[in-house]
Automatic annotation (TrEMBL):
Annotated 3-hydroxyacyl-CoA dehydrogenase C-terminal domain residues: 200-282
Protein name in the entry: 3-hydroxyacyl-CoA dehydrogenase NAD-binding domain-containing protein
Bilayer-crossing regions: none
UniProt keyword annotation of Lipid metabolism present: yes
Alphabetical keyword list: Fatty acid metabolism, Lipid degradation, Lipid metabolism, Lyase, Multifunctional enzyme, Oxidoreductase
Family: In the central section; belongs to the 3-hydroxyacyl-CoA dehydrogenase family.
Length: 301
């Protein structure tokens, strides 16, 4: 069945090679997913050898886990490792049909990335962004071909979460959108089509939920109470574990974007900003017990 709003699948272009800009955790998970489900070469790029090596290393480690669980054979594992390669230059994207960026959430950075990518790819190549909240219209404003820009927003953990937001910018054409839906289907994700609006749809709803949990703590509810009062509601994760998974800096960025767009409806917690400024990865220690220092940042008001 065609997802609501998806154009005719016959318009989709074939994808035979994928480029991923950024080799962070989310980007390397995406690279593995593309290689595994599309069975095409995937090239990761990043700014330096260290980041690139870490990204490719992460892919190999995830492949080894799949092998250990018996999800792939030894041959498939080797093939997957061979399909995902790293490159310091974007020239490796010259014959790619689908390039996705998952770099730092800053409009100027993403614009720069797409200017560099557009200089090397062929005219039919889809330019996809994994942005969680930035405007695609602004991101694509300086592109030569803004009709091939589309939002392709994954959720953490990328390998597991079925949801995929496909964002149509005002300029996105039907062939680009159809290709995005076809790729989403190959990745076995459930794609939803959303408009180019601040934080799209899913993060808008999640930020409302998380914002209320954080506001309750800001207003004096002990963090442990806010964290565990929904335990028996059947949610897959506690609120602060979810914050840890997403990353407090990302959560804060989305909240700031929504606050800028709808100041009366979305606040930005000063305690959240303190947590991010402290550089702490979240409110949990690596052994998943609450970090007293992080908790004190909130409770201190
Ligand atoms: N990477 C790869 N695989 C992972 C993983 C990760 N980070 N975390 C879990 N998995 C895999 C496990 O290996 C396991 O695989 P298996 O079945 O092959 O053994 C499977 O997922 C289930 O894991 P667990 O049994 O350990 O854990 P749970 O059953 O508790 O499920 C969960 C974990 C799927 C993460 C679940 O807790 C969940 O759905 N949580 C909600 C996550 C969520 O809401 N994400 C959206 C965040 S918002 C976002 O990302 C948008 C951005 O723009 C901010």
């Amino acid at each position: 069945k065609r997802p609501a709003g998806a154009p005719d699948a016959a318009l989709a272009r074939k994808v035979t090679k994928v480029g991923v800009v950024g080799a962070g955790l989310m980007a390397s998970q995406m690279a593995l997913l593309f290689a595994r489900r599309l069975e095409v070469p995937v090239v990761l790029t990043d700014l330096d050898e260290a980041r690139l090596g870490k990204g490719v290393g992460h892919v190999h480690a995830e492949v080894d886990k799949l092998l250990a669980k018996g999800r792939v054979s030894a041959d498939q594992a080797n093939r997957l490792k061979g399909l995902v390669t790293g490159s310091l230059t974007k020239d490796a994207f010259a014959d790619a049909d689908f390039v996705i960026e998952a770099v730092f959430e800053e409009l100027s950075v993403k614009r720069q990335v797409f200017a560099e990518v557009e200089a090397v790819v062929s005219p039919g190549c889809v330019l996809a962004t994994n942005t969680s909240s930035l405007s695609l219209a602004e991101m694509g404003a300086a592109l030569e071909h803004p009709e091939r820009l589309v939002g392709f927003h994954f959720f953490n953990p990328v390998a597991v979460m079925p949801l995929l937001e496909i964002v149509k910018a005002p300029s996105t054409d039907d062939a680009t959108l159809a290709t995005a839906f076809a790729v989403g289907r190959s990745l076995k994700k459930s794609s939803v089509l959303v408009k180019d609006a601040p934080a799209f749809v899913v993060n808008r709803l999640l930020t409302r939920f998380m914002g209320e949990v954080i506001a309750a703590v800001d207003e004096g509810t002990p963090l442990e109470t806010a964290e565990h009062s929904l335990d028996d509601l059947g949610l897959p994760m506690t609120p602060f574990a979810l914050l840890q998974l997403v990353g407090p800096a990302v959560g804060l960025h989305v909240a700031e974007t929504l606050h800028a767009a709808f100041p009366e409806r979305f606040g930005v917690s000063a305690n959240m900003a303190k947590l991010v400024a402290s550089g702490k990865p979240g409110v949990y220690l690596p052994d998943f017990s609450l970090d007293p220092e992080a908790v004190a940042l909130f409770a201190g008001g």
